[in-house]
Each structure stands twice: as C-alpha cells, then as structure tokens.
Amino acid sequence: MRKMACRNRVFVHLQRFLMSGALVASLMGCAGTAKEEPPAATDLHETIVKVPVDEGNHTREIVATTYMPDGHGPFPLIVLSHGSPPDPRDRWKVGRYRELPQIRTFVQLGFAVIVPIRRGYGATGGIDEEDAGSCQHPDYTAAGEQAARDVLAAVKYAQTLPAVDGSRVVLVGQSAGGFASLAAASHAPQGLVGVVNFSGGRGGNPSKHPGMPCDPQQMAATIAHFATTTHVPVLWHYVQNDKYFAPEVVATWFAAFQAAGGRGQMIVEPPFGTNGHGMFAVKDAIPIWLPHFEQFVTPLVSR
C-alpha cells in the first residue's frame, strides 16, 4: 500500500509538471489555433505580468494583464475575471481574455484594470483546479475557493503597483468569473469596496437543460456560505434569456445570498440576442449595463 501511495504521488506531481504552461502552449497548437491577438493597446498602457499564487506547498505564477488610464494615479482598481467555456477542452481559448471594448470603458471611467487568467485556463494553462466534479454531486465550494485564490492573488499583486489605489478595489466577473468574484469577496480582502457579478454561476448545461444548471440548490447553499463573510455590496446583473442560469433560478440564489446577510441588488435585463448569458462580452451591449454599473460603483470609489 505504501508503494502504491508513493507511485500515486509521483504520478500526480509528474502530471502537474507535464501540464505546465509551456507544454500546454504546445498542446494548444494540436487542439486548435488561437486567434491572433491584435497589437497591444497602447492607449490603455497594456502590460502582461506574472502574478504569484500560493498553492500551499509551493508558489505558481499565473498570467495577467494590466491596463491603466493616462497619468500617475493612484486609480481605483477593477479585477476582471473571465468565465469558463461550455466544453472544458476549450479552456485554452480564453487566451488573455482581452475584452478590450469593455476594458476600455472601465479605463475611461478612471479605473486601473487587472485581468488574471486563472490556473487551468488560457495563457496560464495547466490543470483545471476549479473542476467542480459531476453534475449530480458538484462541489461548488471547493471550485469557488480555488478560483478565489487566483483572484485574491491578483488583488494583492495589483495593490503593489504605484498607480493603483489599493483601498478602492472592485471585483468584476462574468459567468464563472462572477462566481469567482463572489468567492473571493467572502475572504474580505483589504481594500475591497464592491463586487459586480455579470451572469455569475457554475454548472450551466444549456444543450441538455437550458436555464437549469447542475444542482442549483447546492449553488444556493454555496452562495449563502460565501455571503456570511462578505462585507461589501454586490450588484447581480443577469439577462432574461440566459440559457445557463434562468432568472427564476438566480432569484433563489440571490434570496439565499440575502438571507445569509449579503447586501446588494439584482437586475434582470430584457432578452438579449439568442442567449443573454454572454451579453457582457458584446460591445453593443455596453450601453445597456453601463448605467447600472456606474450607479452602483461610483459611490463606492468616490473620494
């Protein structure tokens, strides 16, 4: 038994080594071809950085990108978190999550922005640390804690930058990134003033059960757990025709959030396109969510 345990440990370590970012990058070429990135956004002072993440027994670096307004700052900070593709094999397609129209909007509002690519995705690569398990018995809490680790590392890193005001931090995320933001907020990081959750959640399965994610009651319990230690307001922004998380399902999550002590508001927009879940990523949708965003965030970061 001892020899088998040792072999298992060796296998795990070997697997983690083989799935490091360098090899994943080469495997991506076999899985498909990533879209060629446009040139760096010089007007946004776009910079690629490496963020250290504490994994307990060692430190791992993840790829992140920072964007800054003109001037010296210090500027309030947005940590923008990406979602997860429907097919886990497409995690590499996240790239650096360069949603430039949305990021430009945040920078024009006077925010510094950092976009971390969590372990297992895109430019960071590696094993999917956020795997929630089977649809029948998902472990959303464990998945959220892993995602939160990367988001919190990005907060900590960005707070060391001279142009960033570390006392005015807003977590913003879409889909799995919205869920990651809720999980990170439960750790009450220093300087956090608010969270904006665009269509957040995990476990969506639109091809089989449109609008009905895996074990929504378990997600409600997980969100309630996170809410007990969340001390900042949260804007929940969803869309009527979300094929991942139907509004009636999200309403139960928000009710659980409030019942556990969470503060905030929920907005459900009219239907958008064929699937409102991806509205945040559509440039033409910015005028739809931006007024709600500004109304919510401005009082939190004003000095």
UniProtKB/TrEMBL annotation:
<protein>
    <submittedName>
        <fullName>Dienelactone hydrolase</fullName>
    </submittedName>
</protein>
<feature type="signal peptide">
    <location>
        <begin position="1"/>
        <end position="24"/>
    </location>
</feature>
<keyword id="KW-0732">Signal</keyword>
<feature type="domain" description="AB hydrolase-1">
    <location>
        <begin position="78"/>
        <end position="261"/>
    </location>
</feature>
<keyword id="KW-0378">Hydrolase</keyword>
<dbReference type="InterPro" id="IPR050261">
    <property type="entry name" value="FrsA_esterase"/>
</dbReference>
<dbReference type="InterPro" id="IPR000073">
    <property type="entry name" value="AB_hydrolase_1"/>
</dbReference>
<dbReference type="InterPro" id="IPR029058">
    <property type="entry name" value="AB_hydrolase_fold"/>
</dbReference>
<dbReference type="GO" id="GO:0016787">
    <property type="term" value="F:hydrolase activity"/>
</dbReference>
<comment type="similarity">
    <text>Belongs to the AB hydrolase superfamily. FUS2 hydrolase family.</text>
</comment>
<dbReference type="Pfam" id="PF12697">
    <property type="entry name" value="Abhydrolase_6"/>
</dbReference>
